[in-house]
Amino acid sequence: MTAPSPTAPSVVARLAAQAARLEAATSAVTTHLTAALPGLDAEEAAAALAVAVPIPVRGAARYLEELAEHLAGHPAALTSRSSLCPPVLLRLTQVLHEGGHPVVRPGCAHCGRVRTDLRQLRPEGRLCATCDANSRRATCARCQREGMRISARRPEGGICTACYHKDPARLEECAGCGEHQNPVVRREDGRGLCVRCWNRPTHTCVTCGKTAVTALVDADGAVCHLCYNRHRRPRRPCGRCGQLKRIARNAHDGEPDLCDGCYRGPEVTCSACGRIRPCSSKLQGQPVCGNCYRRNRQGEPCARCGRTKPVNMRWPIGPLCMTCYNTVLRSPAECSRCGTVQPLIARDADGTGVCGPCVGFAADYTCRQCGRAGNPHSRGRCAFCVLAERVSLLLAGADGVVPEQLRPLATALAAAPTPFQAIQWIRESPNSKLLARLVTEDRPLSHELLDELPPSRNQRYIRQLLVHTGVLGPRNEDIERIPGWLEHELADKPAAHANLARPFLHWFLLRRARQRAAVRRYPASADRDLRRRVSVALELLAWLDQQQLALEDLTQEHVDSWVTGGASQRRYLVRHFLNWTASRRLTRELTVPSIPQQEPQALLDEDDRWSLLQRCLTDDTVPLDVRAAGAITLLFGPSAERLCHLTPNHVQRGGKHTHLMLGRHPVLLPPRLAGLLHHLAEEPLPGSRSLFAQATPGPRLLFPGLVPGKPISTHAMTQKLNRHGIPVRAARNSALAALAADLPSPILADLTGMHRHTAIRWVTYARRDWADYLAARAEDQQEGRR
């Protein structure tokens, strides 16, 4: 038996040269990787290279040399997303990405799909197999259609996909139905099954527990399509909004990647409604728009509310609709087994709530940033942490820090009781966009800065928000915003008109309005009346220009002709302007008649009034604020302005009784109405109209509005009561007429807070006409019974 021959010297030298070449290439690549990724050390880089390019692979040194040369010429290759690179870079970025390093995996140059097998290299980058096949288009040898994707080669030439699926050479007898079809899968015996006979395998999802067709099967188990999209689907920067989100449509034909929020689907004819709309879903294989898809989704009984609605999530508790799903996540409670505060997504045998980990359900709803349970929003964080981040981004200055002046506003926004609504407000509301624009101007916020903006609802909202949070000092906004409104109204008016309108407003109307506001005990909106008086004055001046008349030439005949020629009674308000011009000797003494006071026309029958009052006090289906406001109106008839400005301080509790302060003296409340007002005073109104918490000290409003710190508007309150069958004007007139029939005018004025002259007119009207009115109504009813 002969001994093995020793290795030839040439072979040893060749192996040593290969080892040195491999070591040099590995060292060069490691140097480039540690320079591009500061958080990556040399040992981790070498381990990643060993996985991406195993040493036994033939030509490993050559692959590493290509990689080193590419990294040297392209320092940003790990984050540029460019697929114009060696194939080894595709595998290396995958290994680094799985290791948690900040790299961006290259994708197909056409569709953007991230893969490690982009084999086809083009001038624009590497292509996946699908895009490569789409780029190789030609005329089909069978159907003769041009520009078709060639799927197979036949003796006559290349054929398209449609001809390939109908090719007789592919058809074979299905092992299930016996028909000649294209096989989509083969059984263990080698016989094929057509698409109708093949049942796709199902697994139990490790996240939601639902048994369905899986989208991913890995070491952790199977994951359904819904959970994959929610928790494991890769995220990339959206080409439209720029945020790191799930990509719904990959980039192609010059169009960027689009996330789920930006992608609307192709505009085709909806199979349900027949309109051409973006259709991103399908029903029975046909395109359908979003509205029709939601309308035709099949529902199941919800395990929590029992209503048959589309299923949004399947928990151990059972299928849940969207409303109950959000309710459970946003109201965590103490688990009956482990005692931790978690969303209770399961039930014990006795019906008590149990968290997911206690029943083996692998779903973590704990915020990774603050550790708070429930209220999940995005990327493992709760809505409160996301809201704090969005507030900082909204109010931060050029240096990235929230200015000291805006700290109270940032605190109030971050403490919003409904974080999801506050996040939506920051993202979508025009008010937040106006606030962001003011912050970016890098000027101290002030009332004067806001006065420079055109008058609008957004300007008024931002001003009140800044006042409510203490950023700006309070002022009588109903009066002080009139000068800014006038300047924008005079922008396109002649200079002569502006020279008259400005002193008329500042020296006459505003001076009197400020004097009245200083002594007024009850709130009253004067801005609408002031604007109407100025607008009427400007209309008169424009009419004089049309008639080629000077103001000093105005006569009584001209005034009478202009006042009676209008379609509405607002022209009678010109008497304020003419009184001012006469006192300044700009015109002669002119007379404009006052609008005669009209007596109340809308009145409720006493039976109808008491029936409505009984409904307000006992009907639980009516909203609480409507019941309280309706009952107060039906009993005491306060003005809508005074009703909306009620606070808990106006509700006074005694030993056994509760009183309401509408005027100088309290008025006794019925027990049921007192209970309604106590409930409004002690607990926030369900579905409160304001997004932000109480940010300044002081009593809370009983009827809050949309604007922070402001009550609901009188128009909104009137419309709300009318929608629930409570006619405000008729209810108020009937209540005041009933009180005036029993009380002297001084007592009526003290109890209701109205002016004494108004109280005298009501008492005079009630004692003169109320009895005749009731007698006439009673006579009409008797005739109707006959």
UniProtKB/TrEMBL annotation:
Lineage: Bacteria, Bacillati, Actinomycetota, Actinomycetes, Kitasatosporales
Domain of life: Bacteria
Protein name: Site-specific recombinase XerD
Species this protein is from: Streptomyces similanensis
